[in-house]
Amino acid sequence: MSHHLDSPIARQDIRLDITDLYLFRGETGTVFVINLCHSIFGPIPAPGYHPEGMYEFKVDLNGDAVEDLTYRFTFDERDADGKQRYVVRCVRGVDAVNPDAPGTVVTQGATGETVTTPAGLRVWAGKAGDPFWIEPDVLHAVGHAFQDGTTVDLAGWDPGRAKNLFAGHTVYAIVLEVPDDELLAGAGDKRRIGVWAVSTLATDAGGWRSINRVGLPMVHPLFTQYNEDLGNRLNAGRPGYDLATYGATVARAIAGVVFANGTAEDPCAYGERVARRFCPNILPYEVGTPAVFGFAEWNGRSLTDNAPNVMFSIAANTPVSLGIGKESVTSKPSKTFPYVPAAT
After folding, report:
1. Residue 3 has pLDDT above 60, yes or no
2. pTM for the full model?
3. pLDDT of 179-188, one tens digit each?
4. Residues 117-141, buried b or exposed e (16+ Cβ, 10 A)?
5. 244 φ, ψ to 5°?
6. How far apart are CA 286 and CA 246, in angstroms?
7. Which of 56, 165, 171, 189 has its Cα between 20 and 30 A from that of 256?
C-alpha cells in the first residue's frame, strides 16, 4: 500500500492517516489532493476528519526543503447529518513552518460541497473512492526483500490472478485547486516546487504532534513494512533532515536487494544514489505542466500513475510489476467534483 495504515501512531486514529498525496495540473490551476481514513481499517465511530487535528499541504518554492507556503485545513465535529465544517488558512514566508502561526483565512465550507473563492481557489472535502491500487502478494514480497536484503521472491505467484487489494474501498479526500499566480506569488520565474503533506494532532500540553508525513509515494512500503519504529520516525521528521537521518538506512536496504539481484557493479554506490533521490522525501512538480510519475522523471503525481511499479523497480534496480494497473480501480468518476472517484 502507499501509506495506508503505515505506522502504529497513524493507526491509532485513521482519520489522521494520510494514505496518498497527488499533485497535478487541473482545470484552472494546480491540484493538491490527500486521502485519509481508509475503509480497509473497518468501521470507526466517527469517520471523516479529526476535529482536533490539522491537515497541511506544504510547498517549498526555492528548493531548500523548507516550506515557504502552507495551506492548512481544520475541521469541526460531525453534525447530525455527518457533515463537517472546515476552515482553510494560507500561511506564507517564515511563518509557514510554524503550526501555531494564524495565517490568513482564505475560505470556509462544509464536506461534500464545492467552494470557489473570488481569487479562484477551489476546495472540496468528503468521502470518495480510493484511486490507488496495490497487489498484496507483491507488496509483501517487496517489504520482505528490503527488510532482509534478498531478491523480491514471487515464486508461485501468478500475475494472471493479480488483484487490487483496494478495489471498492473508500477514503476521505481533501482537494485544493490553486491558481498558478496565487501559488507562485513571490517565486519569480521559478516554477519548480516541492510538495509534501502532514497531519498533526493537538496535544494536551498545547503543542502539535506529527502523525503522518507524505511526499513521494511508496516510501513506507519499501522500508517500513517490517520496521514500524522507522515508520513512526519518518512520519515525525522534517524533509530537510531526511538524508542525514535516514539516508544511510535507505541506502543499505537498497544495496542489499541490488546485491542479491546482481544488477549493479557497485550496489552500495547505487544505494547511495537512489537514497539521495528519495531524500528529502518531497514530491517535485513544475507548475503548469502535465503530471507524470515515471521512471525518467518525477513531476507531480496523477491519479492514474503506477507509482508502485516505478518505485519498486527503481529501488530494486530490476523490473518489479504488480500485474495490475488503473483498470483495477472499480470507482467511477465523481459527479460532484472532477478530481475524485465516486465512493461506492
Report:
1. no
2. 0.96
3. 999 998 877 7
4. eeeebbbbbbbbbbbbbbbebbbeb
5. -65, -35
6. 26
7. 165
